[in-house]
Every structure is written in C-alpha cells, then in structure tokens.
C-alpha cells in the first residue's frame, strides 16, 4: 500500500530515514502501532523519495517479508535504489538474526534487479534507531 508518493524530500542519512518512518508510524491508529510494519522507500538518482510503500503489516513480533513484494513497486516505478525500514514494537531497535538475513536477501535480489539497497533502518522507541549499513551488516 503506497503511503506517500513524490514527496520531493531528499534523504541523505539514516537519521532522516528514521524520522520519516517514525512520523508515518505515529499517524497509524493506536492498535496498528503495536504491530511490526515493513516499509520500502523508493528513491531516484538524487535520493529524493519517489514513494513510500507499506509492504507488510505484521504482528507484535514479526512481519512476513519476501523480496518479490519488496521490489514489486520499485520495478514498476523505475527507482534507482531503495531503503528498507521497519519498526520493532518492543521499542528495542537491535537487529535480530532474521533482520540481518532478510537484509542480505534483499541486497542480493536488488543486485540482480539493478536496484541498490542503500540501507535497512529499524526504528524503536524514543527516537532510537539502528542502521544496518552503519553497523556493517549491509
């Protein structure tokens, strides 16, 4: 489900990505805020947001993610790169083994498609976030 299109907003840091995704999460109703959300931010060649897509709305502890769904809109819209992002309803943005594994799968799929995966940002409580790129996991 497309959340936003053609915002004109440029993202140049994981902090900016976390801010954008946190703002979206806080517009959700209170019930859905306690579920894991997985978003894809599609970017043009200048890292300007072309779209933000909610790929999966999961449960309290996980969201079902498949590269096919993650890249579907990116291929249709012809983006240059993507940033993946999701929240941890627990509030702790520490990446799990599953988070690292899906990031590796997405990077591999992106390499095949010619769409770079620039980062995977996990947001938690109190403006905390983790960038898998900054942790050397991408």
UniProtKB/TrEMBL annotation:
Superkingdom to which the source organism belongs: Bacteria
InterPro entries (alphabetical): MPN, RadC_JAB, UPF0758, UPF0758_CS
Domain MPN: 11-138
GO molecular function per UniProt: metal ion binding; metallopeptidase activity
Stretches assigned to coiled coil: none
UniProtKB keywords: Hydrolase, Metal-binding, Metalloprotease, Protease, Zinc
A biological process from GO: proteolysis
Protein name: DNA repair protein RadC
